[in-house]
Amino acid sequence: MTAATDVITNVDGTPARGSDARGPVRRLPWRSSASSVIIYGPIIAVLVVLFLIPLGQSIYYSFTDFNGYSTTAKFVGLKNYASVFADPSLRAALFFTIVYTFATVIIVTIVAIPLAVILDQKFRGRNFVRSMLFFPAIPSVAILGLVWSFILSPLASGMLNAILHALFGLAPVPWLSDPLLARGSVIFVAVWAQAGWHAVLYLAYLQSIPRDYYEAAMIDGASTRQQFFYITLPLLMPAMLISQVLLTTAGLKVYDLPFTLTKGGPGYVTFTITQGILQNGLTLGQVGQASALSVLFMVFVIAVLVTQMVLSRRAEGRVL
Amino acid sequence: MTHRRAYSAALAVLASAAIALSLIGCSSDNSSGSGGTTTLTYFAWDTKPLMQPLMDEFEKENPTIKIDYSFAPPQEQYNATLQKRILSGTAADVYMIDGENRTALIDNHDVTDLTDKPFMKNIQNGGHGNGYDANGHVYGMNVSSWGNGLVINMKLAKEAGMTEPPKTWAELLQLCQKFKDMGVTPVEEALNGNVSPILAALVGAEFAQEGGDPDAAIFSGKSTFAAQWTKPLQTYNELYQHGYATKASVSIDPSEMVNEFANGKVAMIVTGPEQVAPIHAAAPDLKFEYMAVPGPDGGQFYAGSASASYAINPKAKEPDAAAKWLAFLSSAEGAKMYNKQLNAITTTTNFKPTVDPSIQTMADGIRAGHIYWPVIGWKRDQQALSNTLVAEQQQLALGQLSPAQVAAGLDAKLKQLG
């Protein structure tokens, strides 16, 4: 009978598959299993309790008329799913959520990369500037929304309107009451709040690019612009993938910023899907419909993210 | 021995977690404390400093009852918290029923029938018709009503030549034109997430003139929003068509509106008594008065309704104590304290409230029932319809929808809700 530390060999004396000629076959001892349970158990328990069970409940409730007050719920089939597509406010919410996501992803990327390149240079006060640009990422987004609602107030006494009037004699601009300007204002504040954080992310990647590449490029006569497009940008592709995934997920689930700025108005122009889910589920007691909306949205978000990652990886592969 | 230690440790951790979880799940027994004291649980949306004097007086009159107070701010957060507590069986003995949650609470039997309770004789009409009743039974006890009216800057009004409040809608529009000619914004509302009180008052005046219960007719299918609401919407829209009300109203909050009024930039705003103190604080020398919204045919109405009411949990641990608390709130003494502490316009039959002189006229109108609020008049799906109305009235103010389209939109939403 072989002991746990014996080498297992084939008939011709060569080490058997799975065995190591330098040492014995290692069987998993009992204490490793117990350690694994202690280490991974709590994490798995949290995942099950806080994610899988609520997910399962949401999917179940999406097929019922559960209203959040009664403990009984009747099966209604696909009625909740049909009502999601029939509700004009939710269609408007989907449109703005997509517009918001695309706009913030593109504009933040366009702003953050050059900002990171500038922050990578040496200049006086660089650390202070870096801190100031990162600052909007610290406070709660809801607080930022409240502050900006004061700045962008459409009244003549609104801060920005008062400044514009004092400097240029302009009439009050309806920043938050005109539909197009309201959407633009929400996107502007979102870009302002996120650009600094993503610039710091890009900065970290920039600082890991070997200086040799730039030195070699300079020797070859490459201009600053050429160095940016042929060295910096391609080597930032991994950072861009991370940044854009984060921006996409943040954009698709956005709620607090548009809500504090405009409460989803005027009309439904800045109404978001998450606001629709919360409104239906918490305020209206239509938990069944809110669950159907959240299941549909989850599928949509997964599809968007998978597509994004596939396309990004391909682009990364081609460039690198 | 090493693997035995690991397993012992794992078992110890699991056992501790199980004990901790079971303790978290335990609820304390509030039914009685030591010495025969009864604990009454009360989930409020009025802050503790406001309610404390009433609770202290009640406990003084009922030495064996102690009130266990908990709070959530109105309305969405309060209703969401109440919903969770009812579902988990931890709801208080007494809580609030409001216009948005009343249908769900009544339909799910989460409120006690108060119809024949002795304290209901202190409530106007025994609570019938206050909006917290259904099928002849009353489920909420309201001790006050709230109202919103037009607040007018009396200095600017005098400059515009106003000698008495406008009695008809046409007179109001003429007054607005004078303010506009003076270079002052005539009217400003706070429509960011709110139904227009002017629109609500106009609908109320229209319904009062028509008689009957037009809301019941709409919800029973005998009438429609198009038939009942188009005319008041057209009247209301004249403010925006003529440029008397600023379109910025769609995205401003009450505090911004009050600031503009206190700074003399706006002649009239629409708000309730809760803004009396802030206006006085912002502009101590400003003379202002509240007045009704005059209807096209001379009716004088305010936006408003019975305030959120007190309800008893059918599964209350202390139903007798809960009844005593409601009896105290509706008593003359309780109403007096309520009026003083919350600046509320109490509507009990046993006490006439003292109010700021600037809102005396409005208080009389509210106590006389010249108030209307859509959410209270509507029979079901109040919040969903209210959300639709808020969005559509914003679009109406911006000129994106016509009055007929707004009314049709409400009909479409009601149909969609089934």
Automatic annotation (TrEMBL), chain B:
PROSITE patterns: PROKAR_LIPOPROTEIN
Keywords carried by this UniProt record: Signal
Origin species: Microlunatus endophyticus
Protein name per UniProt: Carbohydrate ABC transporter substrate-binding protein, CUT1 family
Source organism, top-level taxon: Bacteria
Signal peptide range: 1-20
InterPro entries: Bact_solute-bd_prot1, SBP
